[in-house]
Amino acid sequence: MAIKITDECINCGACEPECPNNAIYDAGMAWRFSDGTELQGVIDFGDGTTLDADEAQEALSDEIYYIVSDKCTECVGFHDEPQCAAVCPVDCCVDDEDVRETQEELLAKKAWLHAEG
Questions:
Q1: DSSP-H helix ranges across the chain
Q2: Which of 18, 19, 33, 42 has a CA that sits 20 to 30 A from residue 12's CA?
């Protein structure tokens, strides 16, 4: 699974620097797979989909901070708990019930994002 930021977000920004995958972005900001990862050039998702890691992607929210689920590993492999949730003063970093991943899948995503093994 991944973490999402709910609309109770007060835009304090406490979560953004805590993310080891740079998966958290300010409202209205474009995001890239290459931000804070080792992904470069054309990346292959393994299902026939490819994308330039440096290509700007449209912001997922223009009102509050948001988390890119394709980059979120719930801090697995880095910390014992999601750091965004740990530092959020209003508890709006919560489980995203629409994105479910196993521990193994999260570790594999971490390895992919950071070019491990």
A1: 83-87, 103-113
A2: 33
